[in-house]
Amino acid sequence: MAQYDVADRSAIVTGAATLIGAKVAEAFAAAGTRIILADINEEDGKAAADRIGQNAHFLKTDVTLDADIDRCLAECEKRFGRVDYLVNLACTYLDNGLASSREDWLTSLNINLVGMAIFTQKACAFMKRQGGGAVVNIASISGKRAQPGRMLYSVAKAGIIQFTKNAAMQAIGDKIRINSVSPGWIWSNVMVQATGGNRAKADAVGGPFHMMGRIGDPEEVAKAVLFLCSDDASFITGADLAVDGGYTAQ
């Protein structure tokens, strides 16, 4: 993996107990970044932190609770001295399409969109005090294309892309860059569950939707996140980086 200049800094990764989230955390650690892995899934989150080692710490965090967000940010600053990067990856796939109830809508948006927005808002206060930072929000191809059976997830991901643009404009005066990444079909928890862990099946079904003829690896998302956090992306803000194998170009 390319080595970006993110060493001796600190990051919070939400949704870090997932396959993609854990790979993002591992990539940060390999580059010398100290990480708080934030998730509601204690078992998988702790296991991921244990695999990574001394540069990683798991903290149970519910992104729908302001108190949990405050505690996570405070713990990052207390443990590592600063909050340089925030990666908003936590999400839910709760979705009944057009038949979704009001309760479903509020739950989905609270986790997928509002939780991300409030975490970003609160993190920016920490970053401002130290002279800057970077935020990467995980959006999706679902926020750009209509997909069968989806509504709540797609609307939330579209909202993340627009939030990123607006937030970037408001935060740049404090030297905080805010970008998003829109993955295509990625080998992730939902893919593992849907295929029973059969990667070949996932590529056979999902590959034709992508120019590259396969689905993506979680490590490929992690590389994009590290790039956008690093100073190598110093002139990039308010952007959405497609990591989708050409899905949205077709």
UniProtKB/TrEMBL annotation:
UniProt keyword annotation of Zinc-finger present: no
Keyword check for Cell wall biogenesis/degradation: no
PROSITE patterns hit by this protein: ADH_SHORT (PS00061)
Alphabetic keyword roster: Oxidoreductase
Coiled coil regions, renumbered to chain: none
GO molecular function, one term: oxidoreductase activity
InterPro entries with a match to the protein in the record: NAD(P)-bd_dom_sf, Sc_DH/Rdtase_CS, SDR_fam
Family: Belongs to the short-chain dehydrogenases/reductases (SDR) family.
Name used for this protein in its record: Short-chain alcohol dehydrogenase
Organism from which the protein derives: uncultured organism
